[in-house]
Design a protein that fits this description.
Layout (H helix, E strand, L loop, with lengths): L33 E6 L6 H8 L3 H7 L11 H16 L5 E4 L4 H10 L4 E7 L6 H6 L5 E6 L4 H10 L3 E10 L1 E6 L2 E7 H9 L1 H5 L4 H8 L6
Parallel strand pairs: 3-6
Antiparallel strand pairs: 1-4, 1-5, 2-4, 3-5, 6-7
């Protein structure tokens, strides 16, 4: 009691899906599929990254503080990304798609593994940023997709048509999530263990004692 409520603006969007068979889920379907990161906005420099990281869930929950400004959103670039992903879906080029928003790319990848326990082996480039910024930064206008390997070339061509980037970052594998940042381990964990932490998050958050909360969550490591 006596603590301000953390601001949680929510925007709801409702639309009509004319063909239910065109619905695309965020979950990886099976091992051996290519994973591609679609990005409509350019990554910022170190100053931008530091400022924007201060509004992330990682900063709030792990570091216990917030600062800076939320990541900027370029509406024209976001619209191009949405048009590109819709054309990829309609062309049946992709198996899954998951936006990178709350929690950053590490959380998007983890959530994509839970439904079928299909993991991923990922290689990311830090570009001079701290690994935490790469894994948990919440840059706008990014989508992680999975697809058949022969479709990657056409996906990159379509991305170029809409002026967005499509970077191959890894492949789906059985039962574990491996995220390397500049060839160093960022996340290494079985999918089942990650899912258990994720599904017990609300229960763990209800523990008010810090030691009890840490014990309930099971903890994790990142490099």
């Amino acid at each position: 009691m006596g603590e301000a409520i953390y601001p949680t603006p929510v925007l709801g969007v409702v639309g009509i899906l004319e063909d239910v068979h065109q619905a695309l889920l965020p979950h990886f379907r099976e091992p051996g599929r290519a994973i591609v990161l679609l990005r409509a906005s350019e990554p910022g420099d170190l100053t931008d990254a530091q400022s924007e990281f201060g509004s992330s869930e990682y900063a709030k929950e792990v570091l216990g503080t917030v600062w800076g400004f939320p990541p900027s959103l370029e509406l024209e670039r976001e619209a191009a990304l949405e048009k590109a992903i819709l054309e990829m879906i309609h062309s049946r080029l992709i198996d899954s798609a998951h936006d990178c928003s709350e929690g950053g790319i590490a959380i998007a990848l983890a959530e994509s593994t839970f439904a079928h326990e299909v993991g991923a082996a990922i290689q990311l480039n830090a570009g001079g940023l701290a690994p935490e910024f790469v894994l948990f930064g919440e840059d706008a206008s990014r989508i992680v997709i999975s697809c058949d390997h022969p479709n990657v070339a056409r996906i990159k061509s379509l991305a170029g048509k809409f002026g967005i980037s499509a970077e191959s970052i890894g492949e789906t594998i059985p039962e574990k999530l491996e995220i390397m940042v500049d060839r160093r381990a960022g996340v290494l964990a079985p999918v089942r263990a990650l899912r258990e932490c994720y599904e017990s998050g609300v229960e763990a958050a209800l523990h008010t004692d810090p030691d009890a909360r840490a014990a309930a969550s099971g903890g994790y490591e990142s490099a």
